[in-house]
Amino acid sequence: MSLIDGKIAIVTGAGAGLGRSYALALAREGAAVVVNDFSGDAADETVKLIVDEGGRAIANVADVGTSKGGNALLQTALDGFGRVDILVNNAGILRDASLVKMEESQWDAVMHVHVKALYTATRPVFAWMKENGGGGVIVNTTSTAGIRGNFGQTNYGAAKCGVIGFSTSLAIEGKKYGIRVWNIGPAAATALTAHMPEEYQRQFHIDRVAPTLLYMVSDLSGDQTGKTLLAGGGWIGEVRFEATEGYVPTETITPQEIAEAAGAGKIFFPERPGKWVTAYGPQNGE
After folding, report:
1. 252 pLDDT tier (thresholds 50, 70, 90)
2. Is the distance from CB of 225 to CB of 175 less than 8 angstroms?
3. What is the pLDDT of residue 280?
4. Domain spans of the chain?
5. Would you say 87 and 122 are in contact if contact means Cβ atoms under 8 Å apart?
6. CATH number of the domain at 8-239, please?
7. Among 71, 105, 106, 284, which lies 20 to 30 A Cα-Cα from 262?
8. 259 within 8 A of 235, measured Cβ to Cβ
9. Which residue, among 229, 93, 81, has the nearest Cα to 159 in the 3D structure?
């Protein structure tokens, strides 16, 4: 028996890349898939690949960054398959530039796809899952740019850190209804990494991320919710925000006192000279 037999999944941005890999993996494990992509030709191609393998899939070309598009996405699932059990918010774009050179249109475009669409695509699906009492799983896409930052990606980093806040809050709302919410931070070789060595392309093959997604949306992950997993290059690990033990100041706290406590190692996490951890596994020092 397959992992998710009979489940109905929606994948946004599934016309190519990771979205297509996710859609194919979900179909191979027994799910019927709504393939969303802004390009109708790309969505149709993914649908054809799934159907040719004996799976079930239908296309949707709505702009999920609008309420109309988000509602249409849900309606496509209901019209085609009668329900929805899994939502994968994968659609994304890049509009990189250093902050001073970044135009407002570049900022707005990234927020539209990564943040606005998170609301407009998830809201109707979450409401349907809640009202119909069957639970479900929602997987949202974050990135190390939102956790560690990256040059030229203040828009993307802000959006992807926002995804984590959205998911953490939604996981709390969904828990009593059996709706689980995850974040996945994928690393995969795509057209943007075509210049990288062949070894990189092989290690970060795009299909090496989907098994983590399948774990999240299947019963294998139990009742876990509100967690963030990074996956790529053969490495999988959880990311979470933590605070240090901290320092309890005097009643007359001053900036100078804080500086002294910081210098004594009582506030910040200790540095680890000579050794650091990348987003996708331990590495030697720089």
Report:
1. confident
2. yes
3. 55
4. 8-239, 244-286
5. yes
6. 3.40.50.720
7. 284
8. no
9. 93
